[in-house]
UniProtKB/TrEMBL annotation:
<feature type="binding site">
    <location>
        <begin position="11"/>
        <end position="19"/>
    </location>
    <ligand>
        <name>ATP</name>
    </ligand>
</feature>
<dbReference type="GO" id="GO:0036430">
    <property type="term" value="F:CMP kinase activity"/>
</dbReference>
<keyword id="KW-0547">Nucleotide-binding</keyword>
<dbReference type="GO" id="GO:0015949">
    <property type="term" value="P:nucleobase-containing small molecule interconversion"/>
</dbReference>
<keyword id="KW-0418">Kinase</keyword>
<dbReference type="Pfam" id="PF02224">
    <property type="entry name" value="Cytidylate_kin"/>
</dbReference>
<dbReference type="GO" id="GO:0005524">
    <property type="term" value="F:ATP binding"/>
</dbReference>
<dbReference type="InterPro" id="IPR003136">
    <property type="entry name" value="Cytidylate_kin"/>
</dbReference>
<keyword id="KW-0067">ATP-binding</keyword>
<keyword id="KW-0808">Transferase</keyword>
<dbReference type="GO" id="GO:0006220">
    <property type="term" value="P:pyrimidine nucleotide metabolic process"/>
</dbReference>
<dbReference type="InterPro" id="IPR011994">
    <property type="entry name" value="Cytidylate_kinase_dom"/>
</dbReference>
<dbReference type="InterPro" id="IPR027417">
    <property type="entry name" value="P-loop_NTPase"/>
</dbReference>
<feature type="domain" description="Cytidylate kinase">
    <location>
        <begin position="7"/>
        <end position="221"/>
    </location>
</feature>
<protein>
    <recommendedName>
        <fullName>Cytidylate kinase</fullName>
        <ecNumber>2.7.4.25</ecNumber>
    </recommendedName>
</protein>
<dbReference type="GO" id="GO:0005829">
    <property type="term" value="C:cytosol"/>
</dbReference>
<comment type="similarity">
    <text>Belongs to the cytidylate kinase family. Type 1 subfamily.</text>
</comment>
Length: 226
């Protein structure tokens, strides 16, 4: 029996990691694991309990009581469950992005979730995306990709995503928020956002979704012999 194969996709917020990783997994028949959604769920839980995600003393004691699980529907898409409630949509609120960035900075939170993520790679062909997949979670991944795009382009994409929902959006504000999160993610002490030494950089600033996906498919076929 051949070993399971893994693709690690890292990069900053808003670079299209989740969208492209999901599409690539569907194309290759791999399991898609959105690690960012896991941290968002932790942040959502702490906030719902009235805790401050920016204070580790209000986050870490809540980990043992956290009832978090992943399920996959018939469509192969990942759903996040919190005490049995499907919070897949709730964790996509803009505010939850900040919660996720805060809780993911704590080593104890990362250690708490690490085994869950690695076990999925032991038992499935996976595509996993996040901030430290190729450097910490799956350092032996068969293919490591660092997916990025300019701050300006990521802000424009975020505005296009929010507008159909009726949200009030301001391009300058969103651009500033993305730049701040980039700084926070790359300067935190625990598993900072950085490119693995053997990762392939894919900059999608000048690519649309189909062009970006085509580039990833080509990489996967070349490196994994698919």
């Amino acid at each position: 029996m051949r070993p399971f194969r893994s693709i690690a996709i890292d990069g900053p917020s808003g670079a299209g990691k989740s969208t492209l990783a999901k599409a690539l997994a569907a194309r290759l028949g791999f399991l898609y694991v959105d690690t960012g959604a896991i941290y968002r769920t932790v942040g959502l839980y702490v906030a719902r309990q009235g805790g401050d995600c920016g204070d580790p003393q209000q986050v870490l004691p809540r980990l043992p009581e956290l009832q978090l699980s992943l399920t996959y529907g018939a469509d192969g898409l990942q759903h996040m469950l919190l005490a049995g409630e499907d919070v897949t949509q709730a964790i996509r609120e803009n505010q939850v992005s900040r919660y996720a960035s805060q809780v993911s900075a704590y080593p104890a939170v990362r250690a708490f979730l690490l085994e869950m993520q690695r076990n999925l790679a032991r038992t499935h062909d996976v595509i996993m995306d996040g901030r430290d997949i190729g450097t910490v979670v799956l350092p032996q991944a068969d293919l490591k990709i660092f997916l990025t795009a300019s701050v300006e382009e990521r802000a424009r994409r975020r505005c296009r995503e929010l507008q159909p929902r009726g949200a009030q959006v301001d391009l300058a504000t969103i651009q500033a928020e993305i730049a701040q999160r980039d700084y926070a993610d790359s300067h935190r002490s625990a598993a900072p956002l950085r490119k693995a030494a053997d990762a392939v950089v894919v900059d999608t600033s000048q690519m649309d979704r189909e062009e970006s996906l085509a580039a990833l498919i080509t990489l996967a076929k070349e490196r994994l012999g698919l």
